[in-house]
Amino acid sequence: MHKLNVRQICFWLAAVLPVSRLIVYPATLSFRAGNDLLWPALWNLIAEGTVLLLLLLLARRTRRTFFGLLRERAGEAAARMTALLLALFFALAAVLPLLEQRGFVLQILYENVPSFLSFAPLFALLLFAGAQSLRALGRTMDIALPIFALCFMILLLLALPDADFSALLPVFGRGMGEQARTALFSLPWYTGAPCMLCFVGNFEYKEGCAKKVLLAYAIGAAATLSFLAVFYAVFADISFLQHNALAQISKYATALTPLGRIDLLFVIGLTLVLVISACVPVRLCVHCLGEAFGGPRALHAAIVSILLLGVTVLLNPAFREAQTFLSERMWPVFALFGYGLPLLAALFLREKKAHRSHGIEGKTPRKDLSAADRTRAPSPETGRTLRAEN
Amino acid sequence: MDTKQTDKQETFGADIRANLRMLKEALPAEDILVYEFAAGDGTACAAVYADGITDKELLGALVARPLAAAPAPKTREEVRRKLLFPEVKEADDLDAAGKEILAGNPALLVDGVRGALILGTKKVSLRAVAEPQTAIAIKGPREGFIEDIKTNMGLIRRRLKTPALRFIMLNVGKYSQTAVAIAYLDGVADKKAIRAIEARIRAADIDGVPDSSYIARFLARRPLSLFKQAGTTEKPDILCAKMLEGRIAVLADGSPIALTLPYMLTEDFQSAQDYFVSPYRATVSRILRLFAVCVSVFLPALYVAAQLFRLRLIPFGLLIIVSGGIRSIPLSPGLEMFFLLAVLEILVEASVRMPKYVALALSVIGALVLGDTAVKAGLVSSPAIIIVAIAGISAYTVPDLTGTLSLVRILYVVVAGSIGPYGIVLLTALLIWYLVSAESYGVPLLAPFAPLIRHDLADSLYKADLAALDRRPRALRGKNRTRLKLRRDAAAGREDEQPSGEGPDGQAADAAGEEKDA
After folding, report:
1. Residue B29 is part of which domain span?
2. Beta carbons within 10 angstroms of residue A8's beta carbon
3. Of B395, B423, B440, which closes a domain?
4. Residue A97 and residue A92: Cα distance in Å, rounded?
5. Residue A258: which of B312, B315, B449 has the nearest Cβ?
6. In B213-359, where do the E strands start and end?
7. Number of residue pairs across A and B with CB atoms under 8 Å?
8. Does B215 lie in the same domain as B298?
9. Looking at the structure, do residues B339 and B395 belong to the same domain, yes or no?
10. At which of B386, B414, B440 does a domain end?
């Protein structure tokens, strides 16, 4: 039985993935690239989109999961080792969004200076979410999309009257070298491909699936770029100081005077999506730990949550240093796992066409599937019912 | 009656004295009486019955009189023929006869005839079928279920005149032996769900079942959940509509509330009236209900969070009024709101249980003393009272959820008062995660929103026109999905159309529809 639906993956790409790029990322981009902030983002979006496309081609030719394919080609030990490394990567990838969220929440949602305890319950939620099934993760995407679409559009509309898009000119003022460096340093915000790698084999690939997923990704990318454009158009030269862009962008809307900061309600809505997006790497980290060691999901979720809580407490007073370290020092790690590993998987784990056609017709002998995948392989005749189940 | 005693598999012989002795030993209760009489030739006959729930008049007129007028019959078949009675069953052993006697159906014994005959003369005093107090309709049918399961089954049968309507009869309760019926439409309801429900009810080991809510507890996958696990209704028209969608009903004797399964949260936002008014009006009503639920849950918490942590959420003009109102309040905003919500719950609880004559006095006390005077005394602020009142009233737009909503509202206030706005966000995320992972007999609780089932949205938050509701909800997994076929000539408004009758043609068309689905 498939755990995810293609629609849910589309919603994740269109709504949940972009929202994590709307907090500190815009200010970081403006700090490095100034009014050219759109270009490094575009390069990264194109690169990530290309890797996603290759992963979709991989998913098209197989019914196995990434770890199932690895088990078959490289053996159990290699699969377990890769799962462990990916788990560590997801834990690392979860750190920056959590720190960003901490700063965002404590500065935007509170007028006083609350203690870290106000933020700590998030880790209880991460524990709960981590222990849930992948199907539940998919279903949260169904909820997240309408919230994101409504809140994001309203915030953007509220910000538009204050936007002066001439601030984005001249184009390529900073030169290609600076743009390339900015693109590399912003890799921690591009972790969609390894997530997709874990989704391979957990959803049913159907004809036209790649188009839908890429379209959803393009919509998400357009949302990110339009937000960046409006953000810079509103704040121009002082945009690098606006670290919580999501909440800052619409605060000058004139409609708010008689209504109070009504935009904060939509910011709270987007914070909800942000919380859901923080659960994704944690849940996938638990998934990878399960592939590496087996055992109960709740135990892995508890370990990951406690680990992340510890790291967040440790880095609590040093967000700037942590961000600099992750983006300027650790970018090769993010490049390796964000683009390198999915790329290698897409190129070397592809199944042959003959195998694929058998798979589609449902004639693949079940004994060919690995033990882990045997339970996941759908019966072709029930494909329609399964869609409704997810 | 002691259950252990009825479990004996003792069989009746031909000697009436021995049989009566057996029955007396098995049923020693004082209300189990023996009516002894003689047949025309002097042969001893006896009817053993439970006093108060057996129609004695019927017993005398249709059983004793014909037997007394003629020589005694020699076999059970002959006795059957002698009786002018339509509902007669045979019982060979003590256990079967004992159960029937306790259910109100007397056992007839004739000397020289082996075994007993069970006569269906059960008589229970019933209230009339009336409109239920909890589901009053402005438009639409006004009948409601009563406490008698047979009457309730009849009310369903009257609306679904099809052999596909099936009942699985079970007895639940070690001592109460309450009749429980699982009702479903064969070919429409999901068979797996029917089997699962039957197995769970059969596995229920409980002393007694005073109400269907006891059964609901056994049917729940997450018995400790804050959220409902089964739909409930007191109206046969709603129950039949749900069964036509593919749901399964569970009726319990002694309870006017029927359970419906599988349950989806969106059901509670639907009202019977939505189907009798225009789809636009119904859609507006449903959106209003959702908005009211959000107001009911979030408004008190947001007010507390805004006061404690984020005052800019409140417009400046209103902020001045609020700050003027709360200046002299001794309680913190969270505590003040918690206190007011507790008062609201007490008032609701008291108004449900008090005699009608006292209700007016209580509302005066509630509104004036607790409201106005508390504000004047400086114990609570006016904005807080207004917010609690709005939240309380809003919850009643979805009556089936009021219990859950009041608990969730208090949880939100506690979280908002301690953690602030982020607490509201986190609790919402937690509830989302919890609800998306919950299922009711294979059907996701949040369907058709999570997972998104596009077709089923037509009767969820918005109500599409009847013509668009041509398929049963996909989430319910029934195999027969077609429920409406609009004839083209009818759609074109031709007057010479033939009514699309039920029966063979209709069935054939339905089968064709199913084929198309496949």
Report:
1. 3-119
2. 27
3. B440
4. 10
5. B315
6. 231-233, 248-252, 258-261
7. 110
8. no
9. yes
10. B440
**In the prediction, which pLDDT does A259 show?**
67
SS (H, E, C) B344-383: HHHHHHHHHHCCHHHHHHHHHHHHHHHHHHHHHCCCCCHH
The answer to whether residue A51 scores a pLDDT higher than 80 is: yes
Within 8 A of A138 by CB-CB distance, chain B residues are 451
Nearest by Cα to B34 from B101, B121, B99: B101
Residues B164 and B66 placed together within one structural domain of the fold: no
Residues B312 and B387 grouped into a single domain: yes
User: Model confidence over B222-238: pLDDT tens digits?
Assistant: 888 889 889 999 999 99
Instruction: Round to whole Å and give the CA distance between B1 and B98.
Output: 9
Q: Which residue among A5, A132, A385 sits closest to B451, beta carbon to beta carbon?
A: A5
Instruction: Domain A6-381: give its CATH architecture.
Output: Up-down Bundle (1.20)
Q: How confident is the model at residue B109 (pLDDT cuts 50, 70, 90)?
A: very high
Interface membership of B450 toward A (CB under 8 Å):
yes
Give chain B's domain count: 3
Q: Are residues B213 and B75 located together in one domain of the fold?
A: no
Which pLDDT tens digit goes with each residue over A7-44?
999 999 999 999 999 999 999 999 988 888 999 999 99
The residue-averaged pLDDT of B51-78 equals 87
Sheet holding B258-261, edge to edge: B165-172, B178-185, B248-252, B258-261, B231-233
Binding-face residues of B in 70-99 toward A, CB within 8 A: none
What are the extents of the domains in chain A? 6-381
